Amino acid sequence: MRHDRQLTAAELDSFGAELDALRQRTLDDLGEPDARYIRRIRAAVRLCCWSGRALLLLGWFPPTWLLGVALLGLGKILENMELGHNVMHGQYDWMNDPELRGTRYEWDIAGPADFWRHTHNHIHHSYTNVLGKDDDVGYGLVRLFPEQRWKPFYRWQPLWVTLQALLFQYSVAVQHLRLDQYVKGRMSRAELRPLLRQFNAKLLRQSVKDYLAFPLLALLLGTSAAAVLVGNLLANLIRNLWTFTVIFCGHFTERAAVFPPSVLEGESRGHWYLRQLRGSSNLTGGPLLHILTGNLSHQIEHHLFPDLPARRYAELAVEVREIAARYGQVYNSGRLSRQFGTVLRRIWKYRLA
């Protein structure tokens, strides 16, 4: 349960001004260390992915095959979380590096980057945890808050969540299609058709790369195509499960709040910041955890400052926590095991009316 103090209009203005000032100080301090960091992450992604793929080409020999799966899975996690997600937020546009331009980056995942830039960067970050506006609240499949209207298929949501976790990259890709709107007659076939073409083209490229091109290369080299195919499947599964866990822990823990659409009426900058704080959850841990989560272990700071380089979130968290305490606000943070445990309890509890 949350126990946030209600803020007056003057306090909200002051709260927003302090966070605006913190953001601006960080922007003014960006420079070569930030650029060097993201270039190293890009190099690490390439090293892990290509090393992993090379080891998989050696066949089923247990040590090299397992290491190949682990390295490829790690490379995909880093690319998805610390590189792709953060670059697409425009966190490194100031570098003027074409490969790190937020509007141009295409990531190694089934969903087109353009889909993500709209559903995540625009819709989710504008309407964080606002019921009926933020599609990420349950992704249309899961009831996680009592404020969500109950529907009969929620009875089976532990099954839906399991499937979503296993196939998370496809779940994210399909979200932008808004197939529910098409089924309800709120989207025409003419509107859906270009989205499907874009979706199918990206899905085909990813599938050919992971499940056809590299297995065929193994055949040409006289090694096991099955070893490469299964290795790619497992690497994608590792990435899917990890990404699902991190995202659900950032938004749907015991202390995360949801809001009615009325909260958007006349919303000030300070109130927007307050909504981001109350709707987000952090994970405690060391530097390795932060890197593997794309620094979404600092989900609060990410929602407050989505366009700041994520490597800065750990230092920003110190001041954000202090500001939150002065204004009587809960700073929701805890171990991964604890936070994920509260998510699982929500999934189980709110499956029933």
Automatic annotation (TrEMBL):
Any one Gene Ontology molecular-function term assigned to this protein's record: oxidoreductase activity, acting on paired donors, with oxidation of a pair of donors resulting in the reduction of molecular oxygen to two molecules of water
Entry keywords, A to Z: Membrane, Transmembrane, Transmembrane helix
Residue stretches spanning the membrane: 55-78, 211-235
Listed InterPro entries: FA_desaturase_dom (IPR005804), Fatty_acid_desaturase (IPR012171)
Coiled-coil blocks: none
GO cellular component, one term: membrane
Protein name in the entry: Putative acyl-CoA desaturase
Record bears the keyword Transmembrane: yes
GO biological process: lipid metabolic process
PANTHER family on file: ACYL-COA DELTA-9-DESATURASE, DESB, FATTY ACID DESATURASE 2
Signal peptide location: none
Positions of the Fatty acid desaturase domain: 63-333
